[in-house]
Specification:
about 300 residues; alpha+beta; seven-stranded mixed β-sheet; 13 helices
């Protein structure tokens, strides 16, 4: 263990050389820049308190440490989602915490792939870790196994299950999915732009909009019927909404900074949206098969 200033400075230099990599690992694991910074800082504390004389691969050692820290954070994260339909209505009122700019974090989420973060958010902590470390950072399963407390074979299976969920297994043809996504993306663009007339063109005249009964806003009905009344729910909204594959069909997810809050399951008829079912209950959200839509 380094006990003098020179040794401490050398250790700090070694850590700083790995900081960018560690932040990338932590961010993909946690989906939050502030939490990722906390995990990286915790990994520095582990390093500064450890006997480094036996460390042969500083980068690998630190990656393992930050992965363990992230795994603990994921396991302790409160599963209850506090966001409701209000998250769909407008951008959340986010504050700067620990000097983190929420706008920068939103940009970072987009650069990493917001859709990927959404899908990762519904994986188990062990699946998420195995997938991120192996598929994103090429860490061997032999090194992942002790982090999750499983065998290399089981670690491989964890990553495989996560990979299937990330890629999805659509039940519709590629052509159907492409046409569905075109409709959904155009609908969301019209909603963001407040274009009421455009919204009507994507809705079936008899469309039904159903709220999640666990999250019905005060004073709002459980269902809204008809293209005109349903369209009135959307102008100027959908700022946080993105299209995604939901149980094999194109739908909409609302996920501030990659944290899944709402899902809009859609049914289409003759190229128009005929049903919109809101899912907000965390238990139901966790049961959905979500997958990334390729850009």
């Amino acid at each position: 263990m380094a006990t003098n200033n020179t040794g401490h400075e050398w250790l700090a230099q070694q850590f700083e050389a790995q900081r960018t990599h560690l932040q990338a690992v932590a961010y993909r694991m946690l989906g939050s820049l502030s939490e990722a910074d906390d995990a990286v800082q915790e990994s520095w504390l582990h390093l500064s308190r450890s006997d480094t004389s036996e460390i042969k691969n500083m980068g690998g050692w630190l990656t393992t440490v930050v992965a363990r820290v992230c795994l603990d954070m994921l396991r302790s994260r409160n599963a209850r989602r506090e966001e409701s339909l209000g998250a769909f209505a407008s951008e959340p009122a986010m504050k700067r915490e620990n000097g983190i700019d929420p706008e920068y974090e939103a940009l970072l989420a987009d650069s990493v792939g917001l859709a990927l973060l959404v899908v990762l958010d519904v994986l188990s902590p062990a699946e998420r870790l195995a997938f991120v470390l192996h598929d994103v950072f090429a860490v061997p399963f032999e090194e992942i196994a002790p982090i999750v407390g499983r065998s290399p074979t089981t670690a491989r299976q964890l990553a495989s299950r996560a990979r299937r969920r990330v890629r999805g297994a659509g039940t519709d043809s590629d052509a159907d999915l492409t046409s569905q996504r075109e409709v959904v993306d155009a609908f969301l663009a019209a909603a963001r732009g407040g274009n009421f007339e455009a919204l009507l063109t994507f809705l079936d005249p008899e469309v039904v909009f159903r709220f999640d009964r666990t999250r019905v806003p005060a004073g709002m009905p459980m269902e809204v019927h008809g293209a005109s009344d349903v369209a009135k729910q959307f102008p100027g909204r959908a700022l946080l909404a993105r299209s995604a594959l939901i149980n094999g069909a194109v739908g909409v997810v609302v996920a501030p900074l990659g944290r899944l809050s709402l899902v809009f399951s859609l049914t289409m008829t003759n190229g128009k949206i005929a049903e919109i079912n809101v899912i907000a209950d965390p238990a139901r959200l966790s049961q959905l098969d979500l997958a990334v839509l390729d850009d």
